[in-house]
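Before surveying the methods themselves, we first show a specimen of the format, giving the amino acid sequence and backbone structure tokens:

:::
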Amino acid sequence: MTTAAAPGTGGRRAASTDPSRSAVRQEDWARAVRALTGAGEICLACHVRPDGDALGSMLAVAQALRARACPAGVAGVRIVASFGDQPFEVPAVLRFLPGLDLLSPPEAVPDSPELMITFDVSSVDRLGSLAGRARRARELIVLDHHASNPGFGTVNLIDPAAAATAVLAAKLIELLDVEITAEIASGLYTGLVTDTGSFRFSATPQVHRMAARLLETGIDPQAIARELWDSVPFGYLLVLSAALGRAVLEPAEAAGHGLVWTAVARDLRVAHGLPFEVAEPVIDELRRSEEADVAIVLKEADDGQWHVSARSKGQVDVGRVCVALGGGGHSQAAGFSMRGSVTDIMARLRELLSSRRDASGLAGPAGVLTAESGAR
């Protein structure tokens, strides 16, 4: 199938993304490929409030499935890609991604899908309004790299060693025998740079080889970087200034490794006409404090719920803490969602972070509060 080049690309193709060795069993990969090639309807879903890895990986696979069907002349194969947010809006920072035409609002997803595949979803609750549909799917393929994922699918393609879900999406596309075009590569590269923090984390030789092969398709990494990190409304700078201005440093917390935190209240961003998603990058600035291993940002959504992002430089396993609070993620990047006051949420976080057993990664805290699974 011949497609037009994505913006900033030369339209060239790459041979292989050379993803890192997967912990997923070969029979599970084979079962997933059989299901995808034999289905008459394929539903794709990523987590609510999607980031670059979730949406980029999903759109890459959606485009690959469309490309696979077209040359074969397969009739009746329906591809529906969505996420369970209400209202259904693609984050502004990701509206450059190719394949947005494949997206449909969550109500367009069948009530009981024949086949559903999820992307970067660490628990079924992270599907939002699509969670029930996932539970009712005849076949549910889970493609993810979160260590906290319990394996809620009938086919679980979960590899915590993968730098991003995009790595697993690339492997799936290759197993489907679809060439990776510039349009597909744009989504995969976006996922890769998002979850590696522009190659600051999980910067293995395999990750750089994958990036190189994606770049060989002709995508423009500078254009993608501008969209992801270098283009914000002026109001965001005022929100960031206020959030950093009220940041609190607590060197003795987190078992002596240090904690820095701040909160972005709904009223702060609404005053500048900004959506919830604009608060996401605040954590990247806050975590730079050299006196703290752990950084926490509480972000208030329009419904009053707090979405909490947690980051660690390696001394504290924030993933275990967030799991105990109903969320999930990785040891150095995790999150959860909870209703209540900032004071109460921070008190619970301090309690869990102060456990030396948890900080050392030997054991997680017992007990789960009444909370909702959260975003990273």
In short: The chain has 13 helices and twelve strands.
